[in-house]
């Protein structure tokens, strides 16, 4: 059976009382989730002015990731679909306000009230259809649209995810861009199977200098250790793929000929000395039916 929990059962079933307790009492998990959350907070790049911010922790679970936010002096709201995880978070008396909810149905928060969002090891769950009524694309759309809406303009969302493959990463990123985010993916330890970690670093608003994906550490391509606990900061390679909104799809005619093909063809005819109408924005546009 796959070791990916999201392929085993829906989150609210997988994280039942037993699993939620096991998850929260594993010192290995506590350590990993804390490291991931610290990195996510670093990538959020909040102003260094000592002012507490209101942050959102999406898929907060039992509050391991939220604890990092509290330790750094921030207030937070945590949302999770698993009641068992949230019960443990309450038992542990975390500082955040906890909400039971499904991110795939939208976050339901007031517009513009959140100063930054993190999500640690949770968003890849949206790519699975756990019920016949689930359509991952619709759920990703609902999630990213509502996330965009609740963030203050210019605020960031940093989502650490475990996409199953490149197509899944592209799917998630595509829906983020369509919702209006700019940004891209930061990959820590790209050459390590065990330590490789991906963060979607998204900024609420159109691309600008301030919305650029954070600079890479050790971009010289030095290979890094495969050992999670090596702790050798110098050898931590970070690669970045920066993406803004997807380009408009080229319209293709029935014969598979798009604008580019027509422009090339016109150029060819001109070179042959034929009289060809000038290229305009209307070139290769589909005519309305009345023509
Ligand atoms: C691996 S745990 C991570 C928990 C926490 N972020 C941490 O770092 O310890 C993933 C969490 O995502 C939650 N989750 C998965 N799908 C969700 C959804 N559709 N809506 C809200 N939470 C979800 C699960 O219930 C689980 O608590």
Short description:
This protein has 291 residues and is α/β, with parallel strands linked by helices. Helices cover 31% and strands 19% of the residues.
Overview of this structure, please?
This protein has 2 domains: 5-243, Vaccinia Virus protein VP39 (Rossmann fold), CATH 3.40.50.150; 249-291, no CATH class. Helices cover 31% and strands 19% of the residues. The protein is built from 8 helices and 8 strands; from the N terminus they run αααβαβαββαβαβββα. An 8-stranded mixed β-sheet has the order 3-2-1-4-5-7-6-8, with helices on both faces. α5 links the parallel β2 and β3. The longest helix is centred in the N-terminal third of the chain and has 18 residues, at 27-44. It starts with 10 loop residues before the first helix and ends in a 20-residue tail after the last helix. Bound molecules: S-adenosylmethionine. Residues 11, 15, 33, 59-61, 64-65, 79-82, 85, 102-104, 120-122, 125 line the site of S-adenosylmethionine. Residues 11, 15, 33, 59-61, 64-65, 79-82, 85, 102-104, 120-122, 125 line the site of S-adenosylmethionine (SAM).
